[in-house]
TrEMBL record:
The keyword Mitochondrion does not apply. It is found in: Membrane. This is DMT family transporter. The chain crosses the membrane at residues 21-39, 51-69, 81-102, 108-128, 137-154, 166-182, 194-215, 227-247. It comes from Janthinobacterium kumbetense. Keywords: Membrane, Transmembrane, Transmembrane helix. It is a multi-pass membrane protein. Belongs to the EamA transporter family. Pfam families: EamA.
Length: 304
């Protein structure tokens, strides 16, 4: 799965050693996130998409609760609950749920190109919420990036959008909203607290739905292969929780802008992961569109 914005912005440039460590941690986080779609597709091949999406949030929420308790983290302030709810809606519920459904019929390599526009979509929401005035070049790159993913979806869909394409587009918009809100909130509280409280905030909704969904399917779930459960375990532990710890720590050490650039590698790593885990063909067309999207995102972020 794609990553959040940073928690700590330092007024001083990082030391060389800290800079390199931050880049390394950022690369580890991006590598972990890049396998989200392939492992999701592995899980939903045998498990219900709703269970996969919300069950992974429930597992991650248990880990988040234990971590917050161990850290003796303070409760969020009253004005922080609404942004946390938006983070939960976009990152804990919306993106996992919609992508889980889409991965039932969509190759992970296809989804990798569509999700590649997420960093730029997040920047758009951050601009709108922050009331900034970006350059015309930024908006041009935003439109160009959107046109690229639309063209890719239409080309691979035989000239029309499939339902799975629409689900991915909606997932990207929800995730971008959640990431932008999380980035703003992370200026006032540690980023690890942001994702942990967002996970706990989703539990009252997630828990009853997971129980209601899982009980009638318990016999089928018991027959699911170890590969499906491995996929579920990965996205629960690494995509929804541990990956963010590497990401936020890396940005704290190496700087937001510098470490954030590692995110541009994610579509290519997802394509590689899909080829290795799912044996999906690594086509020249997918690589070409992924490269074009990455270039547009990189230019757009510089023009912001």
């Amino acid at each position: 799965m794609p990553s959040h914005t940073s928690t700590i912005v330092s007024n001083h440039p990082p030391r060389l050693g800290a800079d390199r460590t931050g880049l390394l941690l950022g690369l580890i986080a991006v590598a972990l996130f890049s396998l989200t779609l392939p492992f999701t597709r592995l899980a939903v091949a045998e498990l219900d998409p709703t269970f996969v999406a919300l069950g992974r949030a429930l597992v991650a929420a248990v880990l988040a609760g234990l971590w917050l308790w161990q850290q003796r983290a303070p409760m969020p302030r009253r004005e922080q609950w609404l942004p946390l709810a938006l983070v939960s809606l976009g990152c804990v519920l919306g993106f996992p749920w919609l992508t889980s459904i889409a991965m039932r019929s969509l190759p992970a390599s296809h989804g990798a190109v569509l999700v590649g526009i997420l960093p730029l979509a997040t920047a758009v929401f951050a601009v709108l919420r922050g009331k900034e005035r970006p350059s015309p070049g930024f908006w041009l790159m935003a439109l160009l990036g959107t046109a690229l993913v639309v063209a890719f979806a239409l080309r691979q869909g035989g000239g029309s959008f499939h339902l799975a394409d629409w689900l991915i587009f909606a997932a990207v918009l929800l995730a971008a909203l959640g990431y932008a809100e999380g980035g703003r909130l992370a200026q006032a509280m540690p980023g690890q607290h942001v994702i942990s409280w967002a996970l706990l905030l989703a539990v009252p909704f997630v828990l009853p739905v997971v129980l209601w969904n899982a009980w009638p399917q318990r016999a089928l779930m018991a027959q699911a292969s170890s590969a499906a459960w491995l996929g579920f375990a990965y996205i629960s532990v690494f995509s929804m929780f541990i990956g963010f710890f590497f990401w936020y720590r890396g940005m704290a050490l190496g700087g937001v802008a510098r470490v954030g650039q590692t995110q541009l590698l994610q579509p290519f790593l997802t394509l590689l992961g899909a080829a290795l885990l799912l044996h999906e063909p690594l086509t020249g067309e997918s690589l070409l569109f992924a490269g074009a999207v990455i270039a547009v995102v990189g230019i757009g972020r510089k023009l912001k």
